Amino acid sequence: MMLNFRIATAVLLSPLLLSTSMASDICAPIEQLGTPHLDRFNYYTSMDVDVDSEYTLKISFKHDETLPFPSDPAAQCDPTIVPPEIAPDGLPYFAFRWHYKKVSEDIKKITGIDHISIDWNPCGHPPVEIWAVPHYDLHIYRETPEYRTCMTCSQPPGAPICNPAPGSQTTASGLAFFNVSTIDGDQPINMPAGFVTGIEHAIPLMGGHAWDHEQEPASGMDWVNPIWVMGPYDGGIIDYEPMIPVGFCTGERDKEFSETLSYEGQTLMELPSMYLVEYDGTTAITTLTLKGSSAEKALATQYKSPKTAKTAKTSKTAKTAKTAKTAKGAKGAKNGIGKKAKSGKM
Question: Apex CA 273: angle with CA 110 and CA 40, to 5°?
């Protein structure tokens, strides 16, 4: 049974998550959200808003080579081996490493984003047949860290997922993980067409996970480009993220991947309409660019500057618009997503 497989492998997810003995209506200590800064990643953000109140937000970080990286995944990433092998940072290799920081007030008012969490997964995470390779989850949260501490649920013994069995969730916070607003049957609202929410992918303190399964790589070894994931919770969207394999954000080659995004039944108008992930092989910096409509156009008008207005008219913006148009193929028209990938020369 697929559910039993997910639960058996979900123990990869880590000791950072709630204990199964914790009551589901109790908020967790905020320390369980991980390290409350992003200093180790050379992290920085910047934002421009154009004359039409469209934002461009850039989030940059650098892979930290001192983070644990398994040399023997078969042994170091196997949670059934007791005791597990401990990494140099004192945690099992298969544990999550979460790091987060709040964005500026201007960015929050324009984009609806509250904080960024750069999460390193040395062994990946379930579904293990796809995502069990080292990668980053660049979670972009719309709610505060304090709010997330109360996103608790009842969990199956030995697994850090929210128990999807009928009747298992008896509190408002636990039930919220399985409250996904939909239209036209099973299509979640405020998500691209074709996104699927798996009931076994709800994680305490984080939310649900939904993506287009047609975009999945054949296996983890075939995973090359970022993939867009959205996090439903309590009928809304708690976060969204690009999952980025470590091979994309390391090495000497420049890399680039972009997608245009459209949403079914959209009510959150500030959700990004496109994203671009770029890796600079010279600086080793990975930059995520989000473009979308301002959540507060009045503030956007106040925030923009003559320089920003001029930037909005440059050929680079025109080129981006053209790229988004050409990237949107027949599949993109069907699924609400168009994509483009580019790898630099050796």
Answer: 65
Radius of gyration of the chain (CA): 20
Contact call for residues 323 and 291 (beta carbons, < 8 A): no
| Domain with 299 in it | 2-309+323-343
Neighbours of 137 (CB within 10 A): 22
Let me know if residue 329 belongs to a domain: yes
Alpha helices in the chain (DSSP H): 2-9, 73-76, 105-111, 128-131, 145-149, 172-176, 297-303, 306-311, 315-327, 330-335
Give CA–CA dist 194/287, Å, rounded: 27
- Is 70 inside any structural domain? yes
Q: How many domains does the chain have?
A: 1
Residue 316 domain-assigned (yes or no): no
Residue matched to tokens 């106040």:
302
pTM over 0.90? The answer is no
Residues 27, 203, 118, 245, Cα dihedral to 10°: 170
Over residues 46-101, the pLDDT tens digits come to 999 999 999 999 999 999 999 999 999 999 999 899 999 999 999 999 999 999 99
In order of 47, 70, 195, 246, 317, the CA distances from 230 in angstroms are 22, 28, 9, 20, 26
Interstrand relation of 274-280 and 255-261 (parallel, antiparallel or unpaired): antiparallel
Cα end-to-end span (Å), the chain: 45
* Full DSSP string of 79-106: TTSSSPPBPTTSSBTTS-EEEEEEPPHH
Cβ distance 237 to 111 under 8 Å?
no
